[in-house]
Write a structure and sequence with these properties.
The chain has about 475 residues and is α/β, with parallel strands linked by helices. The protein has helices at about 30, 50-60, 80-90, 110-120, 130-140, 180-195, 235-240, 250-255, 265-270, 280-290, 305, 340-360, 380-390, 435-445, 450-470, and strands spanning about 10-15, 20-25, 45, 70-75, 120-125, 170-175, 195, 205-215, 300, 315-325, 325-340, 365-380, 405-415, 415-420, 430-435. Strands 6, 7, 8, 9, 10, 11 and 12 form a 7-stranded mixed beta sheet that branches. The protein has a 5-stranded mixed beta sheet with strand order 1-3-2-4-5, with helices on both faces. A hairpin with a 7-residue loop joins β7 (about 195) and β8 (about 205-215). α6 (about 180-195) packs across α13 (about 380-390), α8 crosses α12 (about 340-360) and α14 (about 435-445) runs antiparallel to α15.
Length: about 475
């Protein structure tokens, strides 16, 4: 097996007779190595992340003749501090670097780490950046290769399988055309990025905080809802619009004032008869009829008198309607939202409510925005949520992603790349141009509203730049392979 074992293409080999390794952290190798004597080091490379410490350890163990490690360069991420702490203080009982917390690959046994710490001396010159200074350090060291282990130590490596991926502590925006599509996106995101926490109930959960989901095109007519048979509730239990104007099933609980016997409240009872008397939906309609620009068309479902100390207060706390350009938009706030079992049913109920309000105002139905403060899936539903996402969720094609901030047409007009920005309706807004994809990427970033759209534009701009660099501007056509 050739050495180095890991990241060989990112390392520079010097003399096999040298016992010195050089770690430059974030300082570019091509800026330093030309000033060095290749005989003064065995290997040189960078260390950008704490995870890289494990790979440096693996490479040193696989060639246990490097006795001295010189640490230079700019420590941008604390990776150098982690490496220094490892060689100085070792690992704790959990396999993490003492005083730093970085976890090494679990396949590397503690005994091997201790052998490395005894065999390799660290020369900590962090923040030494000038090539001449680094050359002087190596020139004064001049250590020959000398074995500190009987044979190379090589350990298996397993690709990580993280239980949950990192995410912002709060705040996630998801857009989808239908409730069905939004539901699948939510399942996937909560299961991938939700933090595992305890609850006030007996079950653990995966939880994201403050998830805003926008549904744009779901029909407001229950007969045309995007319900699917694989959802955790049936079409019959969801309900339908009855000939007399009422609703059956869950829609009835969500939209009508009547309560089932023994039930302390329903969303419908609080919306239509709050405190036994106030029809908040009718009040919203009346408010928007009198002032279409009103920001007071709000229904509150939380009663401070009854809910502050209640064992089962309502999860849906507030609904607000807004009229803009003849379209009725609806926003709902949930303090707690069971994504697997409840989110889709709630969304269908809200869409039906939105349709009723819009119909009373002779308005079109606009976007439905649902803000879920605690968007969670309970542990007993994890397997089913994973199964639904695996079978039915597919990431959208970035090229087909609809961006509310507009679309972009890319063309080459040598010596520049020209980008024309249009509204979603096709109105030309502005034109930007530059000679490089990097420069245009910086200029375009504020006008891109969807991450997938940004990825797509980056790919297209790089293709355009390549065609320019090759002197073949005619080879570039947006959304096509380069015709080289």
């Amino acid at each position: 097996m050739s050495w180095p074992l890991y990241f060989a293409q990112s390392l520079s080999l010097g003399s096999p007779e040298s016992g010195v390794g050089l770690c430059l952290l974030w300082t570019p190798r091509d800026r330093v190595l030309p000033a060095l004597d290749p005989g003064s080091y065995a290997v040189a490379g960078n260390l950008y992340s704490r995870d890289g410490v494990s790979f440096i350890v693996r490479n040193l163990l696989a060639r246990p003749t490097i006795t001295d490690l010189v640490l230079c360069g700019k420590d941008m991420t604390g990776s150098g501090a982690a490496l220094a702490a490892l060689l100085r203080d070792g690992l704790d009982e959990h396999g993490r670097i003492v005083g730093d917390g970085t976890r090494l690959h679990p396949e590397i046994p503690p005994e091997a780490i201790e052998l490395l710490r005894r065999g390799v001396a660290l020369h900590d010159h962090r923040d030494t950046l000038r090539p001449a200074q680094i050359a002087a350090i190596l020139g004064g060291l001049r250590r020959p290769a000398a074995p500190w282990a009987e044979a190379p130590l090589i350990f298996p490596y397993s690709e990580p399988a993280a239980e949950a991926l990192p995410a912002a502590a709060a705040g996630l925006l998801l857009r989808a055309p239908t409730v069905r599509a939004a539901y699948l996106r939510l399942l996937w995101h909560v299961m991938r990025f939700g933090q595992r926490t305890g609850t006030q109930h007996s079950s653990d959960q995966r939880e994201l905080l403050d998830v805003l989901t926008i549904v744009s095109d779901e029909p407001a007519d229950p007969a045309r809802f995007s319900h699917a048979e694989w959802m955790p509730f049936t079409r019959e239990s969801l309900g339908e619009r009855l000939p007399g104007g009422g609703y059956s099933g869950y829609l009835g609980q969500f939209l009508q004032a009547e309560q089932a016997p023994g039930v302390s409240y329903t969303y419908g009872s609080r919306l239509r008869a709050f405190g036994g008397a106030i029809d908040q939906v009718a009040a919203i309609v009346a408010d928007l009829r009198s002032a279409g620009e009103s920001r007071r068309a709000v229904a509150a479902l939380w009663s401070p008198t009854h809910d502050a100390g209640s064992a089962s207060p309502p999860c849906l706390n507030l609904v607000q309607a807004r009229l803009r350009d003849g379209r009725l938009h609806l926003t709902a706030y949930f303090r707690s939202h069971d994504i697997y079992r409840a989110w889709a049913g709630n969304a269908y109920g809200l869409r039906a409510l939105q349709g009723e309000i819009a119909g009373a105002l002779a308005a079109e139905v606009g976007d439905l925005a649902i803000l879920s403060h605690s968007a969670h899936i309970y542990a007993h539903d994890w397997a089913r949520a994973e199964e639904l996402a695996a079978h039915h969720y597919r990431a959208a094609d970035p090229r087909l992603t609809r961006d509310a901030r507009g679309s972009f047409v890319i063309a080459l007009e040598p010596p520049e790349i020209v980008v024309r920005h249009y509204t979603p309706g096709g109105e030309h807004l502005q034109t930007l141009s530059a000679t490089s994809a990097r420069e245009l990427g910086v200029a375009l970033a504020p006008y891109v509203g969807e991450m997938s759209h940004g990825l797509y534009l980056g790919q297209e701009l790089q293709k355009a730049e390549l065609a320019l660099a090759l002197g073949r501007p005619e080879a570039y056509r947006q959304d096509r392979e380069l015709a080289l």
